Amino acid sequence: MATHTQVNLPLPVLPDNWSGEKDFKPIGKLSAATQRSIEPVGPHFLAHARRARHKRTFSEDDRIQAQENVKKVEDDDSGEISEPEDPMMLSRDAKDWKSQDHYAVLGLSKYRYKATEEQIKRAHRKKVLRHHPDKKAAAGSTEDDSFFKCIQKATEILLDPVKRRQFDSVDEHADVEPPTKKQLKDGKYYKLWSNVFKSEGRFSRIQPVPKFGDENSNKEDVDTFYNFFYNFDSWRSFEYQDEDVPDDNENRDQKRHMERKNNNARKKKKTEDSARLRKLVDDAMAGDERIKRFRQEANASKNKKRLEKEAAEKKALDDAKAAKEAEAKASKEAEEKAKSEREQGKKAKEAAKAAVKKNRRVLKGSVKDANYFVSGDAPASVIDAVLNDVELVQGKIDADETAALAGKLNGLKIADEIKGVWSAEVKRLVSAGKVKDGDVKSLA
Amino acid sequence: MAAEAAPASGTTPGERHAIGIAFGNSNSSIAYTTVEDKADVIANEDGDRQIPSILSYVDGEEYNGQQAKQQLIRNSKNTVAYFRDFLGQDFKSLDPTHCHASAHPQEHNGTIAFTIQDKEEGEPSVVTISEVTTRHLKRLVQSASDFTGKQVNSAVLTVPTNFSEKQKAALTKAANDAGLEVLQLISEPIASLLAYDARAEAKVADKIVVVADLGGTRSDVAVIASRGGMYTILATAHDYEFAGAQLDKVLQDHFAKEFIKWNTTDPRENARSLAKLKLEAEATKKALSIGTNANFSVESLAEGIDFASTINRLRYETIARKIFDGFNRLIEGVVKKAGLDVLEIDEVILSGGTSHTPKIASNMSAIFPSTTTILAPSTTPTAINPSELQARGAALQASLIQEYEKEDIEQSTHPAVTTVKHLTNAIGVMTITGDIDKGLFTPIIAAETAVPARRTIHIATPKEGGDVLIKIVEGGSHIKVSKPEPKPKTNGDKKGDDDSDDSDVSDSDDEPEDVREKVWKVGTVLAEAAIKGVKKGGKIEVMINVAGDLAVTVTCREVGGKGGVRGNVSAP
Ligand SMILES: Nc1ncnc2c1ncn2[C@@H]1O[C@H](COP(=O)(O)OP(=O)(O)O)[C@@H](O)[C@H]1O
Ligand SMILES: [Mg+2]
């Protein structure tokens, strides 16, 4: 090979920490090899033979030794399919092929739907070798080829995938009956049902079919199994059991009638088969300890969840209650505080009110002391006017101002002094814009 | 091979004049190599390159080939056909099915024989299977000698892969008796593969080849690992249920039924009518390999009534579908038996007469991925005539070994030479892809390669060059099945007028097929090596040498550079 294979994907960069003696590091070893025979043919083999021989010659012993471990590629035709032939079967008539057990005819009773195409072909050949009419004639027996025809029919059916399925659909010999209660008492529940479903699984369009499992199967696998069989997609059909339809043109009506009858029968059987399988699954499930265990486990875990949930709910309730209580307490406290504050405020207010009253008495007393700013007996109208003005001023000033004013007036006996204080106050009010100039003439 | 005793004449290499013989159960062919070492198939005196393996005697005169085949109609009792597979067999273990309409095999002194009137006068003779074979081979040798102008005295013959030592010994003896030195018996599928590999344009490559030899009474399939021009058979299957005769039968029944429609008799119930029906059915079948329509016409088919009809290829393919499906299953089955997947098959060689059938080739194209080369006349214009492959291969082998002393040939084909270790896994190197962390296995030596073996490859380095790591590992392949990416919905091209058709199409599109691909799984790390200071754009040459004891030597160097690294991994 002069030109070498070219690879365009690059080699990786050497890692920094890589080291090897003389840049090479042996690590593992080749896996074990298979001994095989190369074909002694072609120019490249000749070159190989030259290299291998190097002028050495090989003996018969070498030959035997060399061939001992060689992997076989040719199947051994002998053995394997050897089953005693039932004399009843040998005398069968090929015309009754519908009732014939095709697997038994070919000596494949053990295999049935499991027989591979290659096995069927080999079995057929073996039977032909034995039962071909020429062989019988040679052995001196009469030329009766009826069993040979049975063999041909069996092969025709089993090598045709469509016909084989039709036959396999009704091959009762491959059925495994569901275990009886008595059988189950021996504690072989898993083994017995396993066999049943292994056999039922042959009808599944979807392959491989999940296994029934045993007591140690986990929940997921068991669920998968039951789901699969509750949704079983079966190729089983029942045309093999059709009644013969007349094959002539004369009886068209009868023919149509038969066909319809067959069709209905097929449908009915198919429905019955689905129901049968469903019941089988129901029965298996009903006795399935695993399902019970899973349910208990599920219940236990559900209970645990419920308790947890209840505890959580209680806690939440308690927490809410505590929070509510705390809140109530806090608001009560706040209320009380506010109340006491309020009460204190009331006293102060009352005190202030009393003070204002007292001061107001001072204010009114002052104008009385000043004889209302007239000499002699003061006429009622003057008294009125002066007291009116005092009240007006009082209305314009707050408690502090009242107190201040009262302070200034307190102890004054002389009318002019008193008048001076009042007119100063009025002036202040006028300049503050609270009283209009001329509104309180009597005190100005 | 004690059985291959030299013939009485004791030919020496210089005196040899050798040919290749494919002696089939239905047909034989003979080939020689030209001065340019090209193999050519020889036509006999009737101009046939496919010579029916049939002998017939009329008034003491011997007929062979096509002329003998015609005798199946009038002279079936004195006609011997389909006898090759009886050679070296016990009467107990032979299948007489195909001899139903010719001389019947019978037990005779512990061997198999036929009772035929082969002389002009007197009692019929009992002719043993060995003698029948010798007579047939003599006729072949005569034709070859007439053609080449020199007496042929030695040959390479092809045999099925399941021929026992006893069968081989019987064939060798019969050939010796016909004046032939048997240089070697080689397997039929290997002969076919050799015929293809010997073509000038063929390159030596590591490939897995399926040879499907679909003949007249049997179909044989072999899966072969072809490694550096050496061949190892990984699996075989033999089938006697699906072959050319069953295709004839389909047509036979088809035309018989048509005949019955117009006439009252069933031509299959009369031996002579049946023989005519059979021969014409085969002719019609062959015509359907070339044309899309074929005639079927028999003079005086039954009760003196002539019958003529036609059939088109489509109809034929429909009525013969079961047989074609049988071929498909047979071939798929043997690939599986070899532990392989169709994705791992590089070539399918269709060999044997039945392989002319276009439908079989197109079925192969459907079963195997587009990367598999299907070598059949209808799929590959340059394909070799499938009926000639075995004879050509035998002739090529004959020309390769005829210079050697008999002793040398025997020693070279000795099991001590042919039995060798074959690698279980591929050996390769890790390269990088876009994803730096994920190395990619790149095979250097394929699995099932016989050791000792040596392979070399050139690998790129990172753009900047520098120091690189060469990691040598074992790799196993497996098939990854994944769901295809859901196709984006196409609403664009829906037209109002063909709504119903449209919905049908999208229905079938709903379940896209799984995507299957061959992926490598990295196994044992065998060794690591470093090449430092690689030039920008440099390439690395990696050579792996596996010794007969499975010790591995790795040699790496920069292409065009000096020095390099070399190291050993010791034998397991
Ligand atoms: N052109 C063709 N088209 C279809 N079938 C063919 C063609 N040529 C030959 N055959 C069929 O091939 C079969 C013979 O194949 P061959 O390889 O010679 O058989 P065998 O290996 O049994 O000797 C016969 O059934 C014959 O009808
Ligand atoms: Mg052949």
Description:
The complex is a heterodimer of chains A (444) and B (572). Chain A has 444 residues and is mostly helical. Among the domains of chain A are: 65-171, Helix Hairpins (Orthogonal Bundle); 175-287, no CATH class; 355-432, Orthogonal Bundle (Helicase, Ruva Protein, domain 3). Chain A has 16 helices and 3 strands. Chain A has helices spanning 43-53, 60-68, 87-90, 102-105, 117-131, 133-138, 146-158, 161-169, 181-185, 189-200, 219-230, 252-286, 289-369, 380-396, 399-409, 415-431; strands spanning 5-7, 24-26, 34-37. The longest helix of chain A is centred in the C-terminal third of the chain and has 81 residues, at 289-369. The mean pLDDT of chain A is 87. Chain B has 572 residues and is an alpha+beta fold. Chain B folds into 4 domains: 13-188 and 394-416, Nucleotidyltransferase, domain 5, CATH 3.30.420.40; 203-241 and 323-384, ATPase, nucleotide binding domain (Nucleotidyltransferase, domain 5), CATH 3.30.420.40; 244-318, Alpha-Beta Complex (Actin, Chain A, domain 4); 422-481 and 514-569, Sandwich (Substrate Binding Domain Of DNAk, Chain A, domain 1). In chain B, 28% of the residues lie in helices and 33% in strands. Chain B has 13 helices and 28 strands. In chain B, the strands form 7 sheets. In chain B, strands 1, 2, 3, 4, 11 and 12 form a 6-stranded mixed β-sheet that branches. A 5-stranded mixed β-sheet of chain B has the order 15-14-13-18-19, sandwiched between helices. In chain B, strand 13 and strand 14 form a beta hairpin. In chain B, helix 4 crosses helix 10 (389-401) and helix 8 packs across helix 9 (358-367). Chain B starts with 17 loop residues before the first strand and ends with a strand. Mean pLDDT of chain B is 91; it is low at 1-9 and 492-508. Chains A and B meet through strand 1, strand 2, strand 3, helix 1 and helix 2 of A and strand 12, helix 4, strand 15, helix 8 and helix 10 of B. Strand 3 of chain A pairs antiparallel with strand 20 (419-422) of chain B, so a sheet runs across the interface. The complex binds adenosine-5'-diphosphate (ADP) and magnesium ion. Magnesium ion binds at residues 24, 213, 215, 352 of chain B. Chain B: Pfam families: HSP70 (PF00012). Chain B: Residues 498-514 have a biased composition (Acidic residues). Chain B: InterPro entries: ATPase_NBD, Hsp_70_fam. Chain B: Keywords: ATP-binding, Nucleotide-binding. Chain B: GO terms for molecular function: ATP binding; ATP-dependent protein folding chaperone.
